[in-house]
Amino acid sequence: MITRGTIEFLLQTRRWDDPEPTPVPGRPYLYMMVVVVWIGLAGTSYAATDLIQKAIPTEITLPASQQITLPGLAPLSQDENQRLFEAYKAKGPDYIPRTRHRYPDGTPNFINPLIFEASPYLLQHAHNPVHWYAWGNDAFEAARTAGKLILLSIGYSTCYWCHVMETESFEDEEVATTLNSRFIAIKVDREERPDLDKIYMDSVVAIGGRGGWPLTVFLTPELHPVWGATYFPKDQFLHILGQIATTWVTEPAAIKQSGLQSNEYLETRGKLIKG
User: Fold this and answer.
1) 216 with 126, same domain?
2) pLDDT band at 274; cut points 50, 70, 90
3) Is there a domain that residue 64 lies in?
4) What are the pLDDT digits (tens) for 14-41?
5) pLDDT single digits (tens) 42-64
6) Burial class (CB in 10 A: 0-12, 13-18, 19+), 260
7) Sheet holding 225-229, edge to edge
8) What pLDDT is recorded for position 270?
9) Residue 83 is part of a domain; what is its CATH number?
C-alpha cells in the first residue's frame, strides 16, 4: 500500500509540518496524480480481497446424494456423514445397495452404521432408513445415554419372513421415524451370533409360548428382555411400537421389573447375557 511517507518521498519534500518546505515545480499536479494512483491501488486491493473472500466457501456443501438424513433423527455431523459415505464407496463398483430408496444416479438415500459390517445379512439392512446398530458397546451406550428401550431384531440372509418384514416395515419411513426417535435399534445375524439367538429365542418362547424368525425382542438399556415375538405386519408393528414406547415413559418401573424377571429366568437356565 502507498503510504503518506511514500508520497512525501515522491514529492521530494520535508515533513508536512516543516515551515519552509522545499519548492518543487508542478508540485500540486504531481501530488494530485500520486493521490489518484494511491486511491486507485487501494480500491483495487480492496476489490481483489473481496473477490477472494467470495471465492472461498465458508462451508463445504456435499451433493444431495452424499447427505445422509435418517427420518426421526437430527442431521448427522459432516464427519459422521463422510465416514458413512466413504464406507459405502469403499464397497466398490460391484456393490449394489439393497433398497428401494435411491437417487437417480443409483446412490442410496440412506446409509446406516451396518455399512461397516461384513455380514451379508447386516449389509442387506445397511440402507434401511432405520438407524441400525450392530450388537456392541456403541448401541448399549446409546441406549443408556438416551434412556431408550432397545428393539433387537435377529434374522439371517435367507429367511423369507425376515425379508418380508424388512420390505413392509424396516424400509418404511414412517416405521423408521418411530424406531429412530423412540428406540435404539439393533440388528443381529443369527449365523454370526448363534449364542445371542439362543438366549433371546428362549426368552421369547418363555414370554409368548413360541418363537421364530425374524425374532423381535424389546430390551431395557440393561439388556433385560421385556417382551418379544416374531414377524409383525407394518400396522400391527407400528401399534406395538407406540404402546411399548408410551408405557416406557409412563410406567418405566413396571417395564424394568418385567425385564428383571425375564433376566432371572435366563440366569436360572445358565444363559447370562453378555455383549
Assistant:
1) yes
2) low
3) no
4) 343 444 444 444 444 444 444 344 444 4
5) 454 444 445 434 443 434 455 65
6) middle
7) 132-134, 183-189, 149-155, 215-219, 225-229
8) 67
9) 3.40.30.10
Residue 13: give the domain boundaries: 4-55
8 A C-beta contact, residue 171 and residue 71: no
Q: Are residues 97 and 228 in the same domain?
A: yes
Residue with cell string 486511491: 39
CA distance 50 to 45: 9
Sign of the Cα torsion 19, 25, 29, 32 reads: negative
Give the three cell numbers for residue 36.
489518484
Query: What is the count of structural domains for the chain?
Result: 2
Q: Based on the fold, state whether residues 14 and 107 are members of the same structural domain.
A: no
Residue 90 in any domain: the answer is: yes
* pLDDT computed for residue 70 by the predictor: 94
State how far the Cα of 91 lies from the Cα of 89, in Å rounded to an integer: 5
Which has the higher per-residue pLDDT, 259 or 275?
259
Q: What is the pLDDT of residue 84?
A: 95
